[in-house]
Amino acid sequence: MSEYNRDQWHGLTAIRDALGQMTEEEVEALRASLSPYLEFRRGLAGFHARYFHDYCRRACYETGLSACCGFESIITFFADQLITRLLVTKAEMDLLVQVLKRPNTTGRCVFLGAQGCRWRLPPISCAMFYCEQAKASVFADAPEAAAIFEELRLLEKRFTHPDQPVLFDDLECHFRRKGLQTPQMYYHFSPGLLRLKAKGGILDDSLRIRK
Ligand code: SF4
Questions:
Q1: Range of the domain at 118
Q2: How do residues 128-163 score in pLDDT, each as one tens digit?
Q3: Gap between the Cα atoms of 70 and 106, Å rounded
Q4: How many domains does the chain have?
Q5: Could you tell me if the CB of 77 is within 6 A of ligand 1?
Q6: Which of 95, 147, 192, 209 has the maximal Cβ count within 10 Å?
Q7: Minimal CA–CA distance to 8: which of 90, 88, 130, 102?
């Protein structure tokens, strides 16, 4: 198992086990806290369907290029993994974990399957990514899409940019307080994110992961 696959396996199984020890009420409260984020993701999916879907299908999917899924080590946050676990059945989550046990000889993202991404809700860094060629082509044909995308980028920051309390950090904090530590808890060990939290006055030093 590669280091990346091992880290992903560690994160996903730790979340599965931690949720397994929580009461149904606690899990439901976590699910309820996702509503604004899921609404944002529905808006983002609608934007993609309206402006980028056809272009990406023609340029990448039909040519077999799949350029944006062409990296083996895509960044995922703890919150990406937790949110997915909260949205899927245990069987679906087990499938996501199983794929990590196979050697990845594709040179592409380990989560890319024959039908596309295996995540029910792809990680935010994937969902917000469009290559320069795609943006140039789509924005030339539909100039209003550039402004809508910028609005979506600002909205995304409200969930992920920790210069103020944000969902992605809050979810990590919740599980750090329970003693959980996984390689994807970047809001607790990434120097850049820690600096932003310190600047915003929301750094709880006792929850930091020292690597
Ligand atoms: S996680 Fe999904 S969307 Fe992201 S690179 Fe992998 S296959 Fe593509």
A1: 3-207
A2: 999 999 999 999 999 999 999 999 999 999 999 999
A3: 9
A4: 1
A5: no
A6: 209
A7: 102
